[in-house]
């Protein structure tokens, strides 16, 4: 994404509040849809929709429906997508936020396992193995 949250946070701490506010159009940050956010992350990673289809457990029609904005994925499916495209925790949380879901939180055992997987470039299979090992609900 062009203006990643971490970049904005660094910028905010390195300049005056007045300067920061005057230099940003905050309306552009408000309404990024899930499909726009996902397309941006895919482009940043030089991935195509077919790469997501290959790497995930999602069907071709479902992937294109979410990319076109005609379907809203569940929270777990967004996590599956994030794991499938080697997203960072920050990217996964951007995807969740763009669909109006809450961020992953380390106070949940299940979500701690998912965060660990994202931070350590684990795929969906490895993540589900860890979830099962700790008695947590598997990702679809």
Protein architecture, described:
- With 140 residues, this protein is mainly α.
- The protein has a single domain, classed as Orthogonal Bundle (434 Repressor (Amino-terminal Domain)).
- The chain has helices spanning 5-14, 17-22, 27-30, 34-44, 49-55, 60-67, 75-84, 89-98, 109-119, 124-133.
- The radius of gyration is 16 Å and the shape is globular.
- The model has no long low-confidence stretch (mean pLDDT 90).
Descriptive keywords:
434 Repressor (Amino-terminal Domain), globular
Indicate the topology.
Elements (H helix, E strand, L loop, with lengths): L4 H10 L2 H6 L4 H4 L3 H11 L4 H7 L4 H8 L7 H10 L4 H10 L10 H11 L4 H10 L7
Distance linking N and C termini: 26 Å
Mean pLDDT: 90
Output the radius of gyration: 16 Å
Largest sheet: none
**Poorly predicted tracts of residues:** none
Secondary-structure content class: mainly alpha
* Helix proportion: 55-70%
Shape: globular
Secondary structure tally, helices: 10
Order of helices and strands: HHHHHHHHHH
CATH class: Mainly Alpha
Q: Strand-residue fraction?
A: under 5%
Question: Which CATH architecture is right?
Answer: Orthogonal Bundle
Total DSSP E strands: 0
The domain tally reads 1
| CATH fold description | 434 Repressor (Amino-terminal Domain)
Summarize the structure.
By secondary structure, the chain is mainly α.
């Amino acid at each position: 994404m062009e203006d990643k949250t971490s970049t904005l946070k660094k910028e905010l701490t390195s300049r005056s509040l007045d300067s920061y506010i005057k230099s940003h159009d905050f309306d552009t940050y408000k309404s990024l849809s899930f499909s726009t956010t996902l397309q941006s992350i895919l482009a940043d990673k030089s991935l195509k929709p077919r790469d997501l289809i290959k790497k995930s457990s999602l069907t071709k029609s479902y992937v294109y429906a979410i990319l076109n904005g005609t379907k809203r994925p569940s929270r777990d499916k967004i996590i599956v997508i994030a794991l499938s495209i080697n997203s960072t925790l920050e990217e996964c949380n951007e995807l969740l936020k763009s669909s109006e879901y809450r961020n992953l939180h380390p106070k949940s055992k299940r979500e701690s396992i998912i965060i660990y997987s994202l931070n350590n470039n684990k795929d969906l299979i490895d993540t589900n193995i860890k979830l099962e090992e700790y008695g947590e609900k598997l990702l679809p």
